[in-house]
Amino acid sequence: MPNTPLDIDRINGDITYQEFLVGFYFPRMQFHLTVDDNGIVNCLNKDSYLLPNRPCLISPSLTSSWPCFRHWTVQSPSGSDPLPNWQYLSETYGAQEVSVADCNTRDFSDQKRTSMSVAQGIETVVDAKSSQNLPYIKDWHLVLQSRTGLSNEHDKIPYETPKIFRDDWLNNSCSQADDFRFCYVGVSGSFTPLHRDVYASYSWSTNVVGVKIWRLFPPETAPLLRKFPSNRRSEGIYDVRTVDPSIFTGWEEAQRTMVVIRQNPGETIFIPSNWYHQVENITDCISLNHNWCNSVNLPCLYAAMKDEVEEVSAAISDVKDMMMRHASGGGGGGDDDKGWQVDWLREVDKLVKIDAGWGWEHFFQMIEFNITAKTVVAPGYLRPADRFVRERVCGVVEDFVTRDEYALLPEVKLVVDRILTALFAI
Q1: Where is the JmjC domain (predicted)?
Q2: Taking the CB of residue 175, how many other CB atoms lie within 10 A of it?
């Protein structure tokens, strides 16, 4: 497959949530849409809903009113696409803390990172233009850090989440372990290695400045992106531009599924659950990104959690054997057997939190918080019907109550039981 962007259809930025739900990806290439006299979108293909879990690219009109387009950019001398306003960013947000990746230095599946202030990060980016360095400011928690210390409202809130993405459970949680709203700033040539988004979440990303190339792989291709396809913890491809097919034997087949998308200034890309992707900055770029989830992809997140628990359990199976021997050596049984199982489940959960960022308790607290009417941030017309939400949550809960964690971890069971009660009110 040639490593060039595909000529794909783009969706108008005035898209409504209903249009996003029924048909949001490559409209004319995949299916046809009609609109009735009431403005309701009807899809001629019954499978063309958000559920197909496919990407899309949305035109600049979706985000054209954002203040950051006015304040973070300057006109280029040639009058072409705007350039980053480095001085403004440094003076306004300079004291905030960021992580800066060195794209020339690999660190396992990621890149070597250094923590510094935004001002230092911007200086590093600007200085790199006269060298071979490829710095990339990543995972900048701009929204979280801008809540204090800024006087201008357009600096505190430089953008607004588009309506079609507001049904966001991940960033609407009372027990939020992290913030999943980021700004990225990179020079031409900087990139993010091949990866799947955290927790198998959705993501959306808007280019404020610059052009990116996205290389996407559908979920079913994931095994082919590993050194040993049958082993989920096997080494994965780092850079799809330099793959050795003698090591990654599934690469040639995986490459046939690759979708290559050019994202221009102002455009917004939607990346669905479990789609692996690599991002390359063709020019100097500034982008805004949210990882998010809701009832639609909740089963994907739940499956990812179960996989993580299974993999951690297998990795420390010797600890389980030791706990079992210790319990049986005490000559107990009964409560002693239950005791070691509780210790084992808590040990696994602790390691899952370290590795994945959350455990079962936080996962279900997120669900509980978002199905409680008083905490819902997206009005009815911006989210699926209540019946759909109830069915998705019920499917997850019904499976979880058969697991040992529900029976043996009271702090988790308490949250799940509250969810069961809350479901009757939906």
Answers
A1: 146-309
A2: 14
Q: What are the tokens at 124?
A: 């590093």
The reported pLDDT for the residue numbered 246 is: 98
**Using one digit for the tens of pLDDT, what is the confidence trace for 212-226?**
999 999 999 999 999
Q: Dihedrals φ, ψ of 380, to 5°?
A: -55, -35
- C-alpha distances in angstroms, 338 versus 304, 331, 402, 404, 409? 27, 13, 16, 11, 11
pLDDT at 355: 85
- Residues 193 and 216: their CA atoms lie apart, in Å, by 12
Q: Where are the domains of the chain?
A: 17-217+264-292, 219-256, 298-423
CA nearest neighbour of 105 among 227, 238, 197: 238
Q: What is the pTM of this model?
A: 0.88
**CATH architecture for the domain at 17-217+264-292:** Sandwich (2.60)
% pLDDT > 70, the chain: 85
What is the C-alpha separation between 31 and 28, in angstroms, rounded? 6
The residue type found at 109 is S
